[in-house]
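Page 47, continued from p. 46.
Same chain as before, 678 aa.
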Amino acid sequence: MDQSRAARRVVGLRSVAMLLVMAATGGFTAWSQAQSSHSVARQWNEVLLEAIRNDFARPTVHARNLFHSSVAMWDAWATYDPTATGWLFTEKHVADDVHAAREEAISYACYRLMRHRFLASPGGFETLPALTQLMIALGYDPTFTSQSGASPAAIGNRIAATIISFGLGDESNEWDDYQIPPGGYTPINEPLIVVEPGNPTMTHPNNWQPLTLDFFIDQSGNVIPGGTPEFLTPFWGHVVPFALLPIDEIPADSGVYFDPGPPPMHGTKTHQQYCEEFELVANLSGWCTPDDGVEWDVSPASLGNNPLGTNAGGGYSVNPVTGEPYEPQFVPRGDYVRILAEFWADGPDSETPPGHWNGIANYVTDEIAEKRLGGSGPLLDDLEWDVKLYLAINGALHDSAIVAWGLKGWYDYPRPISAIRYLAELGQCSNPALPNYHPLGMNLEPGKIELITAESAAPGERHEHLFEHIDEIAIMAWRNAPQDPETQYSGVGWILAADWVSYQRPSFVAPPFAAYVSGHSTFSRAAAEVLHRFTGSPWFPGGLGEFFCPQNNFLVFEMGPSVDVTLQWASFFDAADESGISRLYGGIHIPADDVKGRILGANIGPIAFEHAITYFGTPETPCPPDLNGDGLVNGADLSEVLAMWGSTCVDCPADLDGSGTVDGADLTIVLGSWGECG
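Result:
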């Protein structure tokens, strides 16, 4: 793959394109100069996203890394604000130049925390120097490690130490590289050997099954030794959350929050739904070709505007922001579904879904006209906007990982590749009079799922190439990855159901953890809910978010798309829904996984946002030091300040320095937080 194609592929949205191109060419200094117009929080967020791309693809771990880095930023910012509250670090300090002090404290906190978290990363040889280079580019001494005193650097180092200590005891098993604790989860099914037909090792069709490949390469391109990765963090429901409450965890101490109930189960009263949903995913892979003549309008004129938990929206008659109609964009359906499967999975150089939504948040930040919390609050500078947005959105994403993986560990549900092959192994359940019948097997559907017969396998007939498999089941589906993905695409055709694979790389096939519920759907809806509330609007700026996918220069494991395609969304929720359904097109989830994840995210996001704003305190009020005009800065001025705070200052006693009196020293603390007013 050429370098420019690789760079375009891994970008979540164009707000992070500069970082990837510069990282690919070694131009970090040029990148840091180009990013200097962004806040220091944004610059550290961008470097963290690149560190995630170079690490193992672990969505839970990186949702936590993003959240904890956001805590580092927020707690450093709040240190110099009299009414804001830190999440872990609650010291209060004054500075002559508050903005500069915040930037310095944020940088030291992020630098120390990120070095700790990525010290053993497979991409550490790139990440650690990049972190140091950013410190130097910002004008800070990376060798300063003292935690003593009131300098911003020392405060930043203390913040990092506080978060690191907290993280080693938050039930994430960070100290053991996030491994399953001894005596913890053990899969009930033996691994499926993917290159062999069928699924003879699946004895429990309602449970997750490990996959064995010749070698396994995760979505960040890391080769996993042994080729049979274990379940990623099935214990994650026990990790300390941001806004989730013990009352939402039922049963108590189970690691299960907001339990939506079980997914459809094989051999139970929901057996038919089980079969139909897995068969649907098999059939959707039959859409993964640009050659079937089917075209869709993929603009917001036809797609989006879905009621929660559905795909029944039908789009928008006009752009809700501009009032103008959206321009239709007709493209081959197979190009669109293939792009979705790769774009939302983030390909072989993934920042994982939590990182992807940070990219989307940064994109929105770059496009938004005025930075006002909720769309109507005071105008915020870039730094305040970023630290508050990161705390809210990454708090929601962290809690989404806890909720989704708690349910994954609890229900232990299979991936489509396991269930589809298992059903095919049993046989067909449509007609007892036909060969290969099993009452709990797979439904036949003409043109999609068929029994191979002597007639259908005769020369010139549709199953001719399967003539050695009379009485077995065939599926019209994607034909696996081509030999040369640079110049070839596979298209679809009749394949043995026993050989079915998801629309993924042969060295990946499915993520190494249970399916129910969809992490993508949970992450995406929660993030969309936060963006809606934080910006005060459900719409992308201008009513249109876009990402361009160039012809034959976007897909990774086969050539495509066959034409230029631009992904477009009117609302944050449209993007979230597209992320959810993309996992069906990619053969990773069934509708039950997706729908329940969307509903959970719709619950998690608002809770996280409302919790985040409780830390923000009272907005700073520009004012001269001498508030009462008597020519002096003294306790009388402080009385004016406290009167201005009124009942909103429930956590701010008048005696700010603990001296036992309300005097000018307290006023100095207050005024120092205002920067130019101090």
